[in-house]
Every structure is written in C-alpha cells, then in structure tokens.
Design a protein that fits this description.
single chain; 247 residues; alpha/beta; Purple Acid Phosphatase, chain A, domain 2; 6-stranded mixed sheet; 5-stranded mixed sheet; 8 helices; globular
C-alpha cells in the first residue's frame, strides 16, 4: 500500500492541487494529513473541502487549525501569524469550522506497516517542534513507536533511533529511504503550502508499506497565483513574500 503523507497545507490551494495531481499520478492508495489545513494562506475553506473526501478519518489537528476555531490561544504566535489567524477565523465557513474543531490530536495506521501520525511530536502532538536530536531522543523515550510522521516545522528531515544513538539526517527529495526493522523513525514530511527549508517547492512524502520505504517529493506550483490572492485579501506582506524563497 502507498500512503501520501501531507502536512501544513496552510490554505494554499495552488500548492495543494499540484500535490494532489502528483498523488494521483503516483497511484497512492491513501492520503494522510498531519494538520494545519489552514492559516497563512487565502483559501482555507477550499483546501479543507478539497481534502475532506480524500483523507476520511486519516487526519489530525495542527496548531493553526486549533487556533482558527478558538481552541488554542493565539498569543504564542508571531504577529504575522496572529493577523492571518484572525483573518482565517472570519473567513471560515461553519461546516469547515466544525470539521476542524473535531480533528483528533493523532491517528495511527494499524494495517500493513504500522505508523503514528501527529502534527508536532508524539509527546506533544499539537505544539512541540522536533528540531534537534535532544528533542527527538526525548520523544523516542516518551513513547513506544517504530515510525512516526510529523510536520509543524515545515522543514523535512529524519531522526533515527538505534541501539547505539539517535541521529539526525537530511531528507533529500526523490531518494528512497529504506526503513530498517531494528531502527525507529521520526520523519518530518515538510510543508505543502509553506516550505521553510529554503526550497519554495511544495513538499510531501510517499510511504510504500510493502517496500518499507519512504520518499520525499518536491513540486513546483504557481506561487504567484497564491501570492496575488493573499495580497487581494490583505494578508501580511511578509507572509506573501516568504513563499517565493521558502523561508
């Protein structure tokens, strides 16, 4: 079975449609969304409505999703994110708001190759960033999982735990990563709609459970169309400009 693992769409419809077209071309069997359907971008309702029929129950909440429906205080966000959250709160339709309000903190695949899906981390599914080996090590200790997919930082990467140590590795696009049964993995799949690793292309991952392998996919999309919509809606210029540089 082939799973497409998406995270951090952030209301970027152009990036999402580009990714979904690639998912279809690769004949993935299932789609999983690691949260942050909304926030920053200009098409929150459209992105949620587009994904809901495809992910079914295979989706979890992100911090922007929770903030957009009043389930998370926005004072911890930077000023640009706060402005976008307030805009999103006004823009959300009632059906979309109800969907986001009901999203769980985690989802687990128990068939074929088992894996955990969260937005932030296994220890704190909504808000914790896993950016370094120390935090990854604490998460491996906190919970018994063999494979967990995360997002939140918008930066693809791999943390691998063996009997000897926990190590961090880059997650280069188009290179298949084989999952060894004796190792444990925390895998960040990057962001569909707000990449922050210096590469503005949309990112998502494909997990092949039969081959026990995962591959990062990067795709160009019409960034200018998203930026024009953001300007039209009066979203912060900083958020508009950063899409061009992936930061």
């Amino acid at each position: 079975m082939r799973f497409a693992i998406l995270s951090d769409i952030h209301a970027n419809l152009e990036a999402l449609e580009t990714v979904l077209a690639d998912v279809r071309q690769r004949e993935c069997d299932r789609i999983v969304c690691l949260g942050d359907f909304v926030g920053y971008g200009p098409n929150p309702n459209e992105c949620v409505e587009r994904l809901v029929p495809l992910v079914a129950e295979r989706s979890v909440a992100g911090n922007h999703d929770r903030a957009a429906v009043g389930q998370l205080e926005i004072t911890s966000f930077n000023v640009y994110a706060q402005e976008a959250i307030l805009w999103t709160q006004r823009a959300l339709g009632p059906t979309v708001a109800r969907y986001l309000s009901a999203l769980p903190a985690e989802w687990s695949n128990t068939t074929s190759l088992a894996f955990l899906a969260v937005h932030g981390s296994p220890r704190d599914p909504i808000e914790e960033y896993v950016l370094d080996i120390r935090t990854a090590r604490e998460n491996f200790r906190h919970r018994a999982f063999s494979l967990c997919f995360i997002g939140h930082s918008h930066v693809p990467g791999l943390f691998v735990s063996t009997e000897e140590a926990v190590e961090a590795y880059p997650f280069p696009p188009a290179e298949e990563v084989r999952l060894h049964p004796a190792s444990r993995y925390l895998i960040n799949v990057g962001s569909v709609g707000q990449p922050r690793d210096g590469d503005p292309r949309a990112a998502y991952a494909v997990l092949d459970t039969d081959a026990a392998a995962v591959t990062l996919i990067r795709l160009e999309y019409p960034i200018e169309q998203t930026q024009e919509k953001m300007r039209r809606e009066g979203l912060p210029a900083t958020l508009v400009d950063r899409l061009s540089v992936g930061r």
